[in-house]
Specification:
Elements (H helix, E strand, L loop, with lengths): L1 H6 L2 H4 L1 H14 L7 H13 L17 H11 L5 H22 L5 H12 L14 H18 L8 H18 L2 H19 L4 H28 L9 H8 L22 H9 L15 H16 L4 H18 L1 H17 L16 H20 L6 H19 L5 H4 L2 H15 L13
């Protein structure tokens, strides 16, 4: 009996996956920096110098400070950089643990174990684990958001609910600092929750939601104050949004709204960095898509006028111009923008299609697990809508959170990693709805004819 109790400790129960992730990372580890790793390290090194972004007119806020802060800590402690890769395995492992602990609040041990094992075996979450990317940290923060939110709204934790409100708020805030799209989600959700609380002041759940989001906003406030100081803009999260929106608005046939790194756009990047990006490394995951021969020429022809104008600007001004050009494209070609959004859904779910990209068999590997999730989501949608008021408040709250996030991702250029990090929330929702609406029997009833 004592050994059985030990297996119910989630930290021990899922420890084999931590071992697997560690071995996986060590096998695929590559020392040279690549892609987003270069940007993350550049911002971390800026922090060592006492600032995050250069000042105007060269303001650069391409990524939030959440992950660069982690790198900064490793740098000031002079730790071997391989530990930054290895900690991704810890983040993925803890994401499983916190999902399991969240599921246990609404499911039996066995059912919670089944859904947690799905996340543990979710191969898409392995893609960026060997890299110094923020996806594993984001996955961990999403799972912690689930756990602390469920605890904050639990009626069994009246004495501790303040503690969980603060923890949930801080985690959501740090999530917004790690992936800036969650910053926009935070602002919209705070405005909506505040409005509902004003209408129903006696509703304790709305009050808790507002307090959680206020703590989250307070967590991001120093960064927003900093960006306001740099740009003079309120609630300015980053300079990458306009770029993504511009590519999503492309009106040309054969272009599907995916972000495209062209030579003109990377002229300001040092030559050695461009070479490292092109070479990639031993990890095939770094080359998730390859472009067709002559694609750069096609892009240059289609976007020549825009690039010539964009190259005159830097920082915030360039980001603003990207947005203006995107809005012009959307107004002029609304049907094409809708088609690009539909293509974006395909990229979010299956990493396909990409503009001028060569098709790869690896795309098929995403179909089974994401296909299972999508089918379950479609099934759960109807009972969710029919029983909305009967669903416990923390799940309704987190569903709004997810809807805003995925909805925002659809309208800006995105890829499958945006879906991967939100999978713990989707699994919790699916598990809850299925428990309420489906009864499964693994054994047949006795045959009365025998």
């Amino acid at each position: 009996m004592k050994s059985f109790r030990i297996t119910k400790n989630p930290f021990l129960l899922f420890a084999p996956f931590l071992l697997f992730y560690t071995v996986f990372i060590l096998i695929l580890y590559s020392a040279p920096l690549w892609g987003d790793e270069i940007r993350h390290f550049a911002y971390a090194e800026n922090l060592l110098r006492g600032f995050y972004s250069p000042v105007a007119p060269n303001v650069s806020l391409e990524v939030g400070p959440g992950y660069p802060i982690l790198i900064w800590l490793f740098l000031i402690l002079h730790m071997p950089l391989i530990f930054l890769n290895l900690i991704n395995g810890v983040f993925n492992y803890l994401a499983i643990v916190y999902l399991f602990k969240s599921l246990q609040q609404i499911l039996s041990f066995k059912r919670a174990l089944i859904f947690s094992l799905f996340l543990a075996c979710y191969s898409n979450s392995l893609e960026f684990m060997p890299l110094k990317y923020s996806e594993s940290l984001t996955l961990f923060l999403v799972s912690m958001t689930l756990y602390y939110t469920m605890k904050a709204f639990s009626p069994d934790n009246l004495k501790k609910h303040k503690k969980y409100i603060y923890l949930a708020g801080f985690v959501i805030g740090y999530l917004a600092l790690t992936k800036i799209i969650f910053g926009y989600v935070l602002i919209l959700l705070l405005a909506g929750s505040g409005f509902l609380w004003l209408i129903k002041r006696k509703n304790n759940n709305y009050r808790k939601a507002v307090f959680i989001l206020l703590v989250a906003f307070a967590t991001t406030a120093p960064y927003l104050a900093y960006t306001y100081h740099l740009t003079g803009k309120i609630f300015y999260w980053g300079t990458s949004g306009g770029n993504n929106l511009y590519w999503m608005s492309t009106p040309y046939e054969g272009e599907y709204g995916s972000w495209y790194a062209t030579p003109r756009l990377v002229d300001s990047i040092p030559a050695e960095v461009r070479i490292r990006n092109a070479q990639g490394g031993q990890l095939n995951l770094k080359n998730r898509y390859s472009y067709l021969t002559g694609s750069d020429d096609s892009i240059k022809v289609n976007h020549k006028a825009a690039f010539e104008e964009l190259n005159k600007y830097h920082g915030v001004e360039k980001d603003d111009l990207y947005r203006k050009l995107a809005i012009i494209n959307i107004k002029s070609h609304p049907a094409k923008y809708i088609k690009n959004c539909i293509s974006n859904i395909g990229r979010i779910l299956f990493n396909y299609p990409y503009t001028y990209a060569i098709q790869k068999p690896e795309t098929l590997l995403r179909l089974p697990l994401n296909g299972i999730i999508i089918v379950c989501m479609l099934f759960c949608l109807v009972p969710t809508l029919l029983n909305w008021r009967k669903i416990i408040f923390p799940i309704r709250f987190i569903l709004f959170f997810t809807l805003l996030y995925l909805g925002g991702s659809v309208f800006g250029s995105a890829e499958t990693r945006m879906f991967t990090v939100i999978v713990p929330i989707l699994l919790l929702w699916i598990a809850y709805i299925m428990q309420k609406s489906i009864q499964i029997k693994l054994k047949f009833d006795e045959d009365s004819d025998e």
